[in-house]
TrEMBL record:
This is Type-4 uracil-DNA glycosylase. Residues 49-209 form the Uracil-DNA glycosylase-like domain. The keyword S-adenosyl-L-methionine does not apply. It comes from the Bacteria. SMART domains: UDG, UreE_C. The lineage of its organism: Bacteria, Pseudomonadati, Pseudomonadota, Alphaproteobacteria, Hyphomicrobiales. Pfam families: UDG (PF03167). GO terms for molecular function: uracil DNA N-glycosylase activity. Keywords: 4Fe-4S, DNA damage, DNA repair, Glycosidase, Hydrolase, Iron, Iron-sulfur, Metal-binding.
Amino acid sequence: MSIPLTRKPKRPPAFQEEHAESSSISSLHDDAKNCERCDLYKDATQIVFGEGRENAKVVLVGEQPGDREDLMGRPFVGPAGRLLDQCLHEADIDRSACYVTNAVKHFKFEQRGRRRLHARPNAGEIKQCAWWLGGELALLKPRLVVALGATALYSLMGRSVQLTKERGRIHTATDGTPVLVTIHPSYLLRIRDRVDKEQQRHSFIKDLQRIVQFLN
């Protein structure tokens, strides 16, 4: 199945000309461990870098690590990550064949008693962390990048592409990399109506199936 690509947008954060450079993903990760490019490092437990095959054809980009990811130091291992795994499986995609990362590498949260509640990264924090995401993409050179949610989409495509209007479509980044637009799995976790949740879950799986269609 042929999937048309749209015009390139203006240069967004992750595809900026200047980004982190290293000889491998592992060495890039080592370089990022002491990152102080924004203030998020002050409260986070640790940096949560991407993980997966360095020859992965597909890179999945989320927003930022959550509470569980911050404690474990791995991306998408909390409730949203487990849901992503289930949906990838139903879309006939092997997560272990992908590289999974986030637009922002430190957990941003608000303390409410003993709980740490997710807080959305601002534009400045996204732009500062694009230094590392840009470095990952430059090393990996994937055939397809999947933007999971609005923060990832902004980091990859700037403000020229809107999630609601372009969901399920594949755009072309400034460096020529195809970017598939879809929601973040945490969105599904917030839906209370059972019917709506199932419909949105089905749509998300259909979006993910475009990965297989594109690669084939």
